[in-house]
Structures are given as structure tokens and as C-alpha cells.
Give the backbone structure.
Amino acid sequence: MTKCKSPVVNALKLIGGKWKIAIIYNLRAEPIRFGELKRILSPITQQMLTKQLRELERDLLIRRKVFEVIPPRVEYSLTEFGQSFMPVMNSLCQWSSEHEDLMETLSDAELS
């Protein structure tokens, strides 16, 4: 008998990791170029950003558009599937805002 995977496990396979949610969040409104994403997500390394973007593209959450210009220009944006994650992202942002003080206390305790 095959066990069904938990929907949460399936979702975390797509969006889990330190940077993926931050990448999706920053692409929510408009396409962004690689260099701009790297600047926004500092201190992410170029190698890690490339890896995360490739995985998100593979999983159909983002789209990569290459412009045939010199120097080369690449923009990333959310796909329709990626946009469908926005209600979850909005709920996560609301939850985080509602518990900001507690999270800061926990973060401060972790640094001690």
C-alpha cells in the first residue's frame, strides 16, 4: 500500500529552504532582474541565488525571460502557479506581523 504524502510536505518541497519564500515575495509585484534580486536578498551568494532560481523555475513557480541584448539581460517573474501562492504569502505576512514582538524576542534570545 502506498502512503499519500502530506500536502504540507509537498508544498515544502517546492518552497522550502532559506531563500525561496523571500524570492517569491520579491517577485510578487513585477519582474526583477538577477542583479536586483541579489542586491535585495543580500547576503545571498550568486551561486545560491542561481540554484534557488533554477529550482523555482523547474517547479514552475517562476519564469525566466532572456532578452537578446548585449549585455545579456534576464528577468524573473512569477508564473500563474507562483501567483496562486500569494494568498498563502499574504497570510504568512499577516501572521508574522501579528507576532512580530514575540519573534523579535525569540530572535534576540537566540543571539544571546
Observations:
- The chain has a mean pLDDT of 92.
- The domain at 15-111 is CATH 1.10.10.10 (Arc Repressor Mutant, subunit A).
